[in-house]
Amino acid sequence: MAAPYDLNDDSVVVIIGSGAGGGTLGNELAQKGIDVVILEAGPRIEYQDFINDEWDAFSQLSWLDPRTASGGWRLAKDFPGLPAWIVKAVGGTTTHWAGASLRFQEHEFKPRTHYSAVDGANLIDWPITLADLAPYYAKAEDKMGVTRTNGIPGLPGNNNYKVFEAGAKKLGYKEVSTGRMAINSEWRDDRMACQQTGFCFQGCKWGAKWSTLYTEIPKGEATGRLEVRPQSQVLKIEHDTDGKASEVVYADRDGDLQRQKARIVCVAGNSIESPRLLLNSASNLFPDGLANSSGQVGKNYMRHTTASVYAIFDKPVRMWRGTTMAGIVQDEARHDPSRGFVGGYEMETLSLGLPFMAAFLNPGSWGRSFTTALDHYENMAGLWIVGEDMPQEQNAVKLHGEEKDEYGLPIPDVRFTDHPNDVAMREHAFRQASALYDAVGATRTMPTPPYPSTHNLGTNRMSEKPEEGVVNKWGQTHDIPNLFVSDGSQFTSGAAENPTLTIVALAVRQAEYIADQMAKREI
Amino acid sequence: MVTVYRRDSGITRRELMRRAGTLGVGGLLVVSGGTVICPPQAWGLEPKALKAETVATLIQMARDIYPHDRIADRFYAVAVKNHDVKAAEDADYRAMLEEGVADLDSRAGGEGYRFVGWEEDRTAILKDIEDSAFFQSLRADLVTGLYNQKDVWPVFGYEGESYSKGGYIDRGFDDIDWL
Fold first, then answer.
1. For residues A398 and A396, what is the distance between their CA atoms, to the nearest angstrom?
2. Do B157 and A370 touch (CB under 8 A)?
3. Is the N or the C terminus of chain B less surrounded, counting Cβ atoms within 10 Å?
């Protein structure tokens, strides 16, 4: 049968979300001849319609439904309604992401083993190893066209990179390059090469950066086995009397409720909406929410230990020109407790346009200290710090006690407080990054606090033991065999690396497992 | 020497502009006949809801919050105009702004906040009220109201949209020459 599918067709796999996890899984299953319906909450905006303007693009793409931020993190004060900067559109956050595509390191799959017990952290090892995932990393890199893999050349360095590279080398760092990026450095996969336009975060208008929007999804649709329904916001997953997922309730583009029957349901709505959906799907049989016998749904929310350092020089840099994040120092990504913290961090070039620099350089700040920094915007260089943060049980996505969305469902509250390990790592990174820029003559460096979270992880985590997490090593929930989690919420730990490549690799691997289980009539 | 009018002077806006154009008034904003006028730059702002004096004070306050010496008053005025529009729709909001400015003037003493000579003396007054809803609503709105004006970007060197020009691949993405 070819797409589109009937609401009563109970043979389909329903995937909730069309980003790195859901979009990839949908295509992979469709390529194997499996019928798939992707329900995407946001609209379908093709890449030609992206906007080279920070606030306009923010309005066009961002997930702006009501949410709250609480806890000890500074975002709860500065942006109490915007804990995360992620996307509500077909392609999900792969429209907005920067493109950095790094494999996890071997030890990062075994944080409990290598870091041992860290006070206040809820660390466990992943039920998979780097060796398990390596073949899928290889497939993901090929699929996404990651530079410096598969014979694909690295991207050229822009002005911001050249400052960064010179400082890194003067400081003695060795692992410095324009990185592994899922941005075409040459024509590939019917997509053009990067034109050094900037505005990677606003959606690539050339299609040079990999996004499921114009790779996985149209490829899946071309098989006739994949239907994507935009503006379809899932409200609840329902189950049959045996406790198996049976249908998905969603609000269509007119706000009318629809029910799509399903053989298998895969949740890929990012680490805030995915646990929220499971919690909002509580029933008599599952009073604490679906797949939540462990009580871990929504818990262990991670968002990477992040920060930025911007530096001012006596001459122009014009950091906004060119690829936003093609530059990396990896020397600090190692696990070396002598630095005063476990795990490691990456430093990656980053720039913001003037409007976002004004909003994020030091939120709430005013007066000359702030404005003289902006006066020298043209002479600024910048980098982003991304490191492993500790899972903590009290850092959690929970249902808000009072506030409801337009469908009457509790909105999510994102509660987060830094672990002392996160604080120590950030302080170390601030010092190193400032030294990097000082080494090439910075006249002023500015430690910039974390932005609304782009890497939201861990709220339906993978575990060997059912009592320690939500899903098994295939992303299949411990409690409900035909209910899967297919996004970054299944991460057991955060590692130092940007998460998208790992999400894609896990989705490719999960598709094989689902196809195998379906063929064996196990699910 | 030109006289800077601080109260409704009875002089017409056109006449004021003419004289200013001829005589070259300094950068001060002038309130005349319910209008805030910046004679040397030939623009005026006629508030819908707020007193003209209030708007003039808000423009000064906006500059003191985010002072950029190379940005002309008219950009701050554009940002402040949003508040006048909102005040026209919301009586409570209007009252908050009018009362906030009256409070600033009373803290400043003399002829009021706008006429305190040094920025550091004005910001000392602002520091005392920075947690107020009045201050924070003005500050928060300026983040977009000022910095998202496309006409202000060139002052900072920011080039904005680049797709229509083919990106920077042939326009200097890697042209840094001082390293």
1. 6
2. no
3. N
E-strand stretches of A160-297: 176-177, 226-229, 233-239, 245-251, 257-261, 264-267
Share of chain A above pLDDT 90, in %: 99
Q: What is the pLDDT of residues B158-171, one digit of tens each?
A: 999 999 999 999 99
For residue B157, the chain A residue with the least C-alpha distance is A378
Cβ-based contacts of A162 with chain B (< 8 Å): 174, 176, 179
pLDDT band at B13 (very low <50, low <70, confident <90, very high): low
User: What's residue B14's pLDDT?
Assistant: 60
Shortest distance between the Cα of B58 and any Cα of chain A, in A, equals: 15
- Mutate which: A50, A53, A82, A159, vs B, most B CBs within 10 A: A159
Residue to mutate among A321, A351, A360, A443, with most B CBs inside 10 A, is: A321
Burial A442-469 (b: 16+ CB within 10 A, else e): bebbbbbbbbbbbbbbbbbbbbeebebb
With beta carbons under 8 A apart, name residues in chain B contacting A166.
179
For residue B9, pLDDT over 50 is answered with: no
| Length of chain A (residues) | 523
Residues A196-218: tens digit of each pLDDT: 999 999 999 999 999 999 999 99
Q: Do B158 and A194 touch (CB under 8 A)?
A: no
Token pair in block for residue A73 = 């993190």
Residue B166: list chain A partners with CB under 8 A. Answer: 195
Spatial CA neighbour of A99 closest among A323, A346, A345: A323
| Interface predicted TM-score (ipTM) over 0.85 | yes
Distances (CA, A) of A179 to A146, A192, B30, B121: 9, 19, 56, 49
Contact (CB, 8 A) for A235 and A255: no
pTM metric for this prediction: 0.95
Other CB atoms within 10 Å distance of the CB of residue A342: 20
Question: Which residues are within 8 A (CB) of A271 and not within 5 positions of it... i.e. 6 or more apart?
Answer: A301, A397, A456, A457, A458, A459, A460, A487, A488, A489
Provide the chain A residues 136-195 that lie in CB contact (below 8 A) with chain B. Answer: 156-159, 162-163, 166, 194-195
